Amino acid sequence: MSERNFRSHYYEKVGFRGVEEKKSLEILLSEDPVDIDKLSTFCARFSVPAMFRPLVWKLILGILPPHPSIHEFVWQQRTEQFNDLHRALKVMSAINEETPMSLCFLKMFLLEEGRLPLEEEKLPETDEHDLFVAIATASIEMNDEDDLESYWTAVCVFRNGRKMKDQIRMMYTQGILKKEDPALYNHLLTINSLERLPYTSWFNALFAGVLPTDALKRVWDRVLGGASRVLIYVALTQLLTHRHTLMGIGTPDLVSQYLQKMPLDMQKSSSTKPLNSGKRMGVT
């Protein structure tokens, strides 16, 4: 066993599994410029320590550039852009003190993209808007209600999610489920539920509004690092963990409703499995 492997094995035995990972991340972040590819690879393999997560996500998402020397300047520009958008909505009377922050973020995003209707009643309720609000709500919770951090994280994660190839992930999820649990697969197939599982919430919203915050952070670490296959594993974990309940549900609408709005204690029970155990299913 090499010296490095011995140290890693020792650290894991005594409960310091993340010691070397933390040191590696500190080295990566100290470089100028930061190697975004290496940083993404780290995120794809390991959960990011909480103290580094805000900076790591901003770098990977492109909110900040890889050159630390201009981070302060770029963040100031982001701040001014945020304030300008928020101020414009107030002038337009599109928001007020009672407007939920997630809805404020949606309108700011639409204004930035030139897609905000001038009249409030013409803002349609669409799946895309619901998706953004779900991501924004999760971002607000994960960033301890820091509006600036929350907005830019939500915008960039949403844009990242729009690139996801849902159809491919849906097919992989169904194929692996058929192999892992034929009885559950056949039940969902019989009640016409397989095609109506909440794939959008899973794969485009990256499980925002489905998983508790702590578990969601770890999933987003992997996805933002490029290991989006983990979404398939998390989807399968949801199905297999709750197979007993799902086997007793007879309609696709109730299946979808249960998987999206399961009680918090049930959410926790399905999110405590280590993400890397998805290797058994060949999806991480």
Question: What does this entry look like structurally?
Answer:
The structure is a single chain. By secondary structure, the chain is mainly alpha-helical. The chain is built from 16 helices and no strands. The chain has three domains: 3-48, no CATH class; 69-161, Helicase, Ruva Protein, domain 3 (Orthogonal Bundle), CATH 1.10.8; 166-281, Ypt/Rab-GAP domain of gyp1p, domain 3 (Cyclin A, domain 1). 63% of the residues lie in helices and 0% in strands. The longest helix has 21 residues, at 71-91. The radius of gyration is 21 Å and the shape is flat. The protein starts with a helix and ends in a 15-residue tail after the last helix. GO terms for molecular function: GTPase activator activity; TSC1-TSC2 complex binding.
Can you give me a brief rundown of this structure?
One of its GO terms (cellular component) is cytoplasmic vesicle. The chain is an all-alpha fold.
Would you spell out the secondary-structure blueprint of this structure?
Blueprint (H helix, E strand, L loop, with lengths): L2 H11 L5 H12 L5 H10 L7 H9 L9 H21 L9 H12 L14 H16 L4 H15 L4 H15 L1 H9 L8 H6 L8 H12 L5 H12 L1 H5 L4 H9 L3 H6 L15
Helix pairs in contact: 3-12, 4-8, 5-6, 6-7, 7-8, 9-10, 9-13
GO cellular component, one term: TSC1-TSC2 complex
Keywords: Cytoplasm, Cytoplasmic vesicle, GTPase activation, Lysosome, Membrane
Subcellular location: Cytoplasm, Cytosol; Cytoplasmic vesicle; Lysosome membrane
